[in-house]
Specification:
single chain, mainly alpha, 3 helices, 89% helix, rod-shaped
Length: 105
């Protein structure tokens, strides 16, 4: 038993590599079983990011809705002034309000 052949050395190398992989996988499984907070923390961080994006999107939608409501009010007053035939001052005021709204956007 004095010399080691190439096939025996290869077999030992494969055995050592298999043992390392087995211990590594076993350690990973044990860590996941006893310490699931790492996965949960990653999920919570992802949910926080999604929630922040949703909050920003909702703020933009709310701003658009406010702008749309203001535009509806201006247009309704302008159309009402057009329907009133004798009120030239009302028409001028509605035109001024509409111009001011459109230039402020």
């Amino acid at each position: 038993m004095g010399s080691v052949t190439i096939s025996q050395a290869a077999a030992w190398l494969v055995a050592v590599a298999a043992a390392i992989v087995s211990f590594s996988k076993a350690w990973e499984i044990i860590r996941k079983i006893f310490h699931p907070e790492a996965d949960l923390r990653a999920r919570v961080d992802k949910h926080d990011e999604i929630l922040a994006n949703d909050h920003q999107r909702l703020k933009k939608i709310e701003a658009k809705l406010e702008d749309t409501d203001k535009f509806k009010g201006v247009m309704c007053r302008a159309m009402l002034a057009q329907l009133e035939d004798g009120d030239e001052a009302g028409k001028k005021e509605a035109k001024k309000e509409l111009n001011s709204y459109l230039t402020q956007r």
